[in-house]
Design brief:
With 240 residues, this protein is of the alpha/beta class. It folds into two domains: 127 residues, Response regulator (Rossmann fold, 3-Layer(aba) Sandwich), CATH 3.40.50.2300; 75 residues, Winged helix-like DNA-binding domain superfamily/Winged helix DNA-binding domain (Arc Repressor Mutant, subunit A), CATH 1.10.10. Helices cover 39% and strands 16% of the residues. Strands 2-1-3-4-5 form a five-stranded parallel β-sheet, with helices on both faces. The protein has a two-stranded antiparallel ribbon with strand order 6-7. The relative contact order is 0.11. About 8% of the residues have low confidence. It is found in: Cytoplasm. Its main location: cytoplasm. Pfam families: Response_reg (PF00072). This is Response regulator of citrate/malate metabolism.
């Protein structure tokens, strides 16, 4: 079993990532942290194989956590899962040895492909003492495969989400003429913001919605959502 540690300060994203992780075989979450300092403190006392690391943390950049891990010679691999998409950050993270880089929001297929590729590499490297060139080449990342679909045409809904609630949120979202916050939809449906946010993030990851992140001078960034217009051939796949 591959032991995983998640570093993510957004509670909704953390829950989504945990749910995704549960859907991939041979992985087990051992702990999580919401700040860089907390992550470093816990990783000192844990034996983990893989760290899913966010770049934007409230106290320090994920880069510093990664640098500290390398300095401490921790025997753990790192996959970045972050909204940071500028070229300089991506290049820097690969220079520090991350094995994959997932840009938020991402679909479950991409997450699954990253973990399955890592699992294949981990199993191979823990079963033999020498590798041929062909075996090394086989460790290269594979392309994501299409996920299973529900009756609504969306990928299988994660545990803890209701298809009925999902349809309600889609119905409200697609009627909006301007980007809206989770709070706005929650007020219309009588739901908590955190509940709506989980469904909206799932829709984004499934390609059914888009998120626009607005960064202010202080505090956490604001997330605004819009329904993603589908081609005519795809409209039948939306929840009705």
């Amino acid at each position: 079993m591959i032991k995983v540690f998640i570093v993510e300060d957004d509670p909704m994203v953390l829950e989504v990532n945990k749910g995704f992780l549960e859907r991939v075989e041979n992985f087990r979450l051992v702990d999580s942290a919401t700040t860089g300092e907390e992550a470093m403190d816990r990783l000192k006392h844990l034996s983990v194989d893989l760290v899913l690391l966010d770049y934007y943390l409230p106290d320090l950049p994920g880069k510093e956590v990664l640098t500290w891990m390398r300095q401490e010679n921790l025997a753990a691999d790192v996959i970045m899962i972050t909204a940071a998409r500028d070229v300089s950050t991506v290049k820097e993270m690969f220079r520090y040895g991350v094995i994959d880089y997932l840009v938020k929001p991402f679909r479950f297929e991409r997450f699954k492909a990253a973990l399955e590729t890592y699992r294949n590499m981990w199993l191979k490297l823990n079963q033999v003492t020498d590798l041929s060139q062909e075996e090394i080449d086989a460790l290269k990342p594979a392309q994501p495969t299409k996920g299973e679909m529900t009756a609504t045409g969306l990928e299988e809904i994660p545990k803890g989400l209701s298809e009925v609630t999902l349809k309600q949120i889609v119905s409200v979202l697609e009627k909006q003429n301007v980007p809206v916050k989770a709070t706005d939809i929650g007020n219309q449906l009588g739901m908590a913001r955190v509940t709506v946010r989980r469904y909206l993030d799932f829709l984004v990851q499934e390609g059914q919605a888009e998120v626009h992140i607005h960064y202010g001078n202080i505090g956490r960034p604001s997330h605004y959502y819009t329904f993603k217009k589908q081609p005519a051939t795809e409209r039948s796949k939306r929840p009705k």
